[in-house]
Amino acid sequence: MRAPIVTLLTDFGTKDSYVASMKGVILTINPRCRLVDISHEVSAHDVEEGAYILLQAFSSFPEGTIHLGVVDPEVGGPRKPILVVTEHYFFVGPDNGLFAFVLRREKPEKVIHLTNTKYFLPRVSGTFHGRDIFAPVAGYLSRGVLPKAFGKPTDRWETLGFQGPLLNGDRLMGRIVYIDRFGNLVSNISEAELRDFVGDRPFWVTVKGQRIEGLKRGYWEAKKKGALALIGSGGFLEDAIREGSAAKNFKAKKGDRLTIKIPPMKGKPN
């Protein structure tokens, strides 16, 4: 029988003891756990960014993996602590939209409001539910405690106001939802949405006044320091600079507009 896997995603960084404390709690409850860090460098308090990073990583893990996520700007407030059960995975964390993107792909079979304090640490801090609630729940879950033991089912959970691209006349309007460590600009336009709009026609991608023509298959097809657009590993349209940063080059930030346009036919006005 393979050891249970618990992944961790937080905005805690690695300077402080927060991540280590959570891991210590899990391993005290179940020393057989295999702990995998997805990321601890989510921008502070940025639930949407955390949701996007989790979306890119969760399905790479074996079925039965427990995904523990803590990006929790309202820790100690009225938001619920929850356990989400899908056909393939478990998700433990705050009910603030952190799992919203995942649940577009994974249909929840049940959502449990974590209320059974038997599975929390004896003293629950008002500022560190990652250690005191979510980590112990993940630990006990990895030992085979049934989801229903942790609390009461709920049919309501928070979603994010994630807006897909909008069609505006002859333009498809998207926005930058994530910037990775290489400075690549990840949009909210999926490959399917792009293909549906452009078909077999040539097109332009414009961000911050910079225009890129068509798609490349990979970074290698662009000149060094040249701009390119491509479909990234997560299945979304990205703007990039080969061996450089599109974010710095274009002076772009999360939330900026990205536009797809079909160029005019020759002899017709732009």
Task: Please supply descriptive tags for the structure shown above.
270 residues; alpha+beta; Rossmann fold; Elongation Factor Tu (Ef-tu), domain 3; 2 domains; eight-stranded antiparallel β-sheet; seven-stranded mixed β-sheet; 15 strands; elongated
Descriptive notes:
With 270 residues, the protein is α+β, with helices and mostly antiparallel strands. The chain folds into two domains: 5-153, S-adenosyl-l-methionine hydroxide adenosyltransferase, N-terminal (Rossmann fold, 3-Layer(aba) Sandwich); 166-261, Bacterial fluorinating enzyme like (Elongation Factor Tu (Ef-tu), domain 3), CATH 2.40.30.90. The protein has five helices and 15 strands. It has helices at 18-29, 47-57, 129-142, 191-198, 246-250; strands spanning 5-10, 34-39, 66-70, 81-86, 90-94, 108-114, 151-153, 166-168, 171-179, 185-190, 204-207, 210-213, 227-231, 236-241, 257-261. Strands 8, 9, 10, 11, 12, 13, 14 and 15 form an eight-stranded antiparallel β-sheet that branches. A seven-stranded mixed β-sheet has the order 2-1-3-5-4-6-7. A hairpin with a 5-residue loop joins β9 (171-179) and β10. α1 (18-29) packs parallel to α3 (129-142). It is elongated. The mean pLDDT is 94.
Number of helices: 5
- How many domain modules? 2
Largest sheet, in brief, is: 8 strands, antiparallel
CATH fourth-tier homologous superfamily of the largest domain: S-adenosyl-l-methionine hydroxide adenosyltransferase, N-terminal
Q: Give the quaternary arrangement of the chains.
A: single chain
Assess the beta-strand content as a share of residues: 25-35%
SSE sequence, one letter per element: EHEHEEEEHEEEEHEEEEHE
Task: Give the % helix.
Answer: 10-25%
